[in-house]
Design brief:
This protein has six helices and eleven strands. The chain is of the alpha/beta class.
Amino acid sequence: MLMKNETYIRVRKSMKFKNPIIVEGLPGIGLVGKIAAQHMAKELKATRIAEVYSPHFPHQVIMRKNGTIRMLRNVIYGYKKKDVEIVFLLGDVQAVTSDAQFEVTNKLLDYFEALGAKRIYTLGGYGTGKHLDTPRVLGAATHKSLIKEMQKEGIIFGESRGTIIGAAGMLLGLGKLRRMEGVCLMGETHGAYVDANSAKELLKVLCKLLRVKVTLEKLEERIKLDKVAGDELKKLQGADRGPGESLSYIR
């Protein structure tokens, strides 16, 4: 039962893990992380194992196609096959204040620790204010020992600047205090529109890190639609921002 002023994790199905890797893909700049994580979870047919409800989420409900409503939430999915174990954190929204982020993140970390997790990958978009045909994937790690491992997959370190806002940063920061390790993977993106192309490049890297394969056909279709919308946006607003106006942060 959801209590007042308390984040609640509703376990839907018990799933045992030995050492799962957490993959966070909540909404942020360009929806890059959300698109990548959601696509992977769907392609792998991951199982819904828990739902997260919180008074720190916006005071709204979502209207469904069937005429009913539901609360805003985060959803946790689990995947196991041979020696690959992944737990996905997806959802509608993030907590809306600093205090709320601390409360929700710590509740999530309690749950992930109970599952046996020791590593976290958070996903997001790195705003550049420019359109890029082939976005790079930038990284920021909790520990230096992770950087060489990540660089082997083409992830670039040391070029990202600014701060990592929201769950993508807090899961790593608070996780590090709990002796968990992690990396924020950031796909370069304009920042002003939904960017499935950046999500695709991020997804390619993530597949290598997690040792899984997923098809990209549906994502390619979305990229074509996004390109049309992006072209229209460029006509209205201009493709690039001026000097000093780049979005040097990610969510």
